[in-house]
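Entry 12.
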Amino acid sequence: MLEENQKNNISADFMFDSWKKEYTHKLKFREFPSIQASQTSKETCDLLNLSDEVNGFSGERIRVHENLAVQASNALKGAKRRRRLANYRVLFEHSCDSFLFIDLKGHILEANLAAIKAYGYTHEELCTMKIQDLRAEKTMDLIEMQLQAAYNSGIIFETYHVRKDGAHFPVEVSSHQVVVKLEKILLSVVRDIAERKRLEKELVKTESINAIGKVASGLAHEIRNPITSVHGFLQLAASQKMDQIRFAENCNLMLQDLERANSVITELILVANEKGMDLKFWNLNQLLFSLLPTIQTIAKSQDKTVEIFFEETQGIPLDAIEIKKLVLNLVNNALESMLPGGKVTLRTQMLEDALVLSITDNGSGINPEIQDKLGIPFFTTKDTGTGLGLVICNSIATRHNATLSIESNQFGTTVQIRFKGLPTVISSSYSQMNER
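Predicted 3D structure (tokens):
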């Protein structure tokens, strides 16, 4: 802006331009104070003030220019913010995933085009709904916990959503807290994983065909031996080559063989777990404390001890019966691996990405030659074992979106279960419902 006293305000990177000295000399400007308006790592903007008089700038005029510099800085920042928001808006509107902004009570505040297409509602309809309206009925019990977890630290989980026409479809949800206009809300990114689930089913079918052969071979051995024994006794009895007294004596042996065959079948059913999971919100420490009297009684009967070190943990959805079965099985294995005087240690830890349960014994460790075979159906080193205990434990861990790992050396063995998030399978009825 050109003023009467030939003072001029120029917005430019003037202080670093090579023509500064020549320009001011030709125009005979005698003062050129520069006030920085804004500066980032990539660019600088100054307000340059020129005057043809010595001491031509009073304190008041400099303050005016300083105010102008602040306004210019804010304008530049606002322009950059608007450009960034415009870029975010493009990403928001054109993403293949559904974006939902949700408040703590579950009200949907904003939705993108992908969400409109995925659910079949208009934008106006979605923004009058709650996230509960988009969830399958069987998943309702977990919503409050998931919302709270998303606000606290963020959460990733799988569940089922419902379209406007009533169709159910599997989704993966990534939800975390964001701040918009000083208000804390949730940004949930929802991905339709129906195709991924279909491919997983195809892969499972292929793997199942291969696994059936291996399991059938072991199962035939485990079932055939008891049946052969019973069959032999009955043949002798039928041919009247066995008197009643001898038959009565052998009845106990036949019952033991049949019970063994029945236990194999029972444990195979536990591995399959076709009934689905009964998930409830549990603190793992509470479940372990409820098992402690039983574990200590078993240990004491074997002249062994149990120690616990439990950190404060957050609750997660668990099937209490399955988790107790998992822990008892692993603790029994640990106790059986030690001589009298041995000690088993149970420990829980809350890490950033997982809840960890460790079960450690101070036995002689596992022979490296057989460690790789652990978890193979019907492989056992026990005289009375079925070889399905660790298979069941792995199955329970997998259903809870957990991993089971074993570390062993000459000083003992540690089995670690890492619960990485929400269970991958909430109920088998969800899959059946989706298929219908």
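Annotation: Residues 21 and 218 are 92 Å apart (CA to CA). The two ends are 73 Å apart (CA to CA).
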